[in-house]
Design brief:
By secondary structure, the chain is α+β, with helices and mostly antiparallel strands. The chain is built from eight helices and 13 strands. The protein has helices spanning 11-23, 74-83, 101-107, 114-117, 152-155, 189-202, 224-234, 242-248; strands at 28-31, 46-49, 56-60, 65-69, 86-87, 124-130, 136-140, 165-172, 174-175, 179-186, 206-212, 215-222, 237-238. Strands 3-4-8-6-7 form a five-stranded antiparallel beta sheet. A four-stranded antiparallel beta sheet has the order 11-12-10-13. A two-stranded parallel ribbon has the order 1-2.
Amino acid sequence: MQREFETADVSPALIEQVRAAAARRMPLRIRGGDSKAALGRPVEGETLDLRAHRGVVHYDPTELVITLRAGTPVAELDAVLEAAGQMLPCEPPAFDGAATIGGAVASGLSGPRRPWAGALRDYVLGCRVITSEGKYVRFGGEVMKNVAGFDVSRLMAGSFGCLGVIAEVSLKVLPKPRAQRSLRIVASATDALARIVAWRREGLPVSGACHVDDALHVRLEGGVSSVEGAARSIGGDELDASFWTELREQRLPFFAGPGSLWRVSV
């Protein structure tokens, strides 16, 4: 049974607040769930709260595209896609339900699949933005092969609100893999890196890797036969799949340490 989620279009009120702030030359602090407030530089200004601007605007699973308002929680997006057997492959963190789609795109924050599936910006097809002058403009579209002008929509990913207020975004989604296995292999950091490089050359269906506590944690995803074959090839002990949720949500003990670094993707 499909869950019912709250939906509301408050774009007129948001546009009016931006225009009023522009007239008074008042800076705005754009916020969603404030789950990533520690990222980027501190911003002082009048709060522009997008949490009320939420809901799925359009979603047809056969098209593999979903359009949502910026205040929609990431957890809600996950639930809608899960019901259709689909996913957003870059798996941005939900941060206990606080993270919003607008904040995820604005920060460009992805999850464990990022080195294999691509960054969040790779899944942005289009968006609607409120400019600093209070104009409501659209970039991109809602189709895979889009050639509608400059690709400003992907430029919004990681912009932290500097280019405008993200009010609506269209994302490319994909079917969930048929099979998944998670394994833990005792290995040094040097050995773990060598193994990952070798597995990539062999084309193994790796979709997640994390070296922590002197062990390499690996996730395999894809067809049943390819996943089972890869699991036999690399060996190791079975790992609870919840490890990847804890990693995605940055809840592993590793993240509590001073100066901890997860991964840099360039």
